Amino acid sequence: MAALVPDSLAKENNDKASENSTTQVIGGHGTNSYSNNSSYQRLSANVVTKKIEDAIMKNLDVETLSSTSNIFRVADFGCGVGSNTINSMQDLLQIVEKKYISQCPTSSQMPEFQVIFNDQFTNDFNTLFTCLPQDKQYLVASVPGSFHNQVLPKSSLHLAHCSYSLHWLSRLPKELRDERSPAWNKGKIHYTSAPPEVLMAYATQFVEDLDDFLSARGREMVSGGMIVIVGSSIPDGMPYSQVVNGIMYDCMGSILMDMVKTGSISEADVDAFNLPIYACPPGEFIEGVERNGLFSIEVIELMNPAPWLKGPIDIPVFVKHVRAAMEGMFSNHFPSKAIDELFDHLVLKLSDISQQLESCYRDGLQLFAILKRK
């Protein structure tokens, strides 16, 4: 199962999905908070730690980078809330330190490290900073704003990290809610099991978003700097209905339509709601990077995001993680009283098809890519 990262839709502007990964998560440290219900995401990130180390040791020229500045800046784009981003940044810094020792053994001292945490303005940075270790050996800054725009000074960044964030579209294609469009997604909330025009609308928007993301990082990053990208994907040509998340999104849509019949929500609300999530296949990702032209692809592969998950899926625990990550998206569009009903029914519906979920394809659902600034 691909890890899920939270975000939101603005109710007053339903065609505008949030532009970064972690806007309307459940903040704080409560029972249902994202901070306490994001272990799946951390485990998925751990899967690629050794691969990140190998790529940095092979491709990052720290000697050249340090010749122009004694400050080494690392940024996590779509950082979210809680300890996951902090652990990832500390892992990256340890790897960079190892590379410095290996490449510059005669250097008298390490550069000064600065870690920058980026996410939407509404991200709970207060909760994030309470998770920082007291003995941290790096400077810290938060930079709110959409990562589809430039958020850092030009040529100031050496290493970027973006984990389970790029799959969130910056905006929903307007044709999804246009009754005159072939891509009108009536009665559905995602491109899973939808007409091909809906899938194309999502894919087109992702291409635009990826180009914006790469162009922004291209302005911020020094020549030779690197981006580590981990996120949702799917093999080229595979229907999304064959993976757990796709089945879950179909179930969510079905539950919402059942709630229309009972009067809990209106059909118009369902028709106006679409999940701004796109799992980009590697072929489309490669084309987007090459079209942008600012970065070379040093590494790209598909992986199993959850190799530790063996045997039956604990549906209630899984849904609890999903809710912590996605509740804000639904609560900003549907009445608050409908949210409990949605997720309670989701537990029941997924439990009924648990064997189908366990048999779903999962080996190649996590994209791992290393990009280098030309």
TrEMBL record:
Residues 9-18 have a biased composition (Basic and acidic residues). GO terms for biological process: methylation. SUPFAM superfamilies: S-adenosyl-L-methionine-dependent methyltransferases. GO terms for molecular function: metal ion binding; methyltransferase activity. It holds the Pfam family Methyltransf_7. Keywords: Magnesium, Metal-binding, Methyltransferase, Transferase. Residues 19-33 have a biased composition (Polar residues). Residues 1-33 are annotated as: Disordered. This is S-adenosylmethionine-dependent methyltransferase.
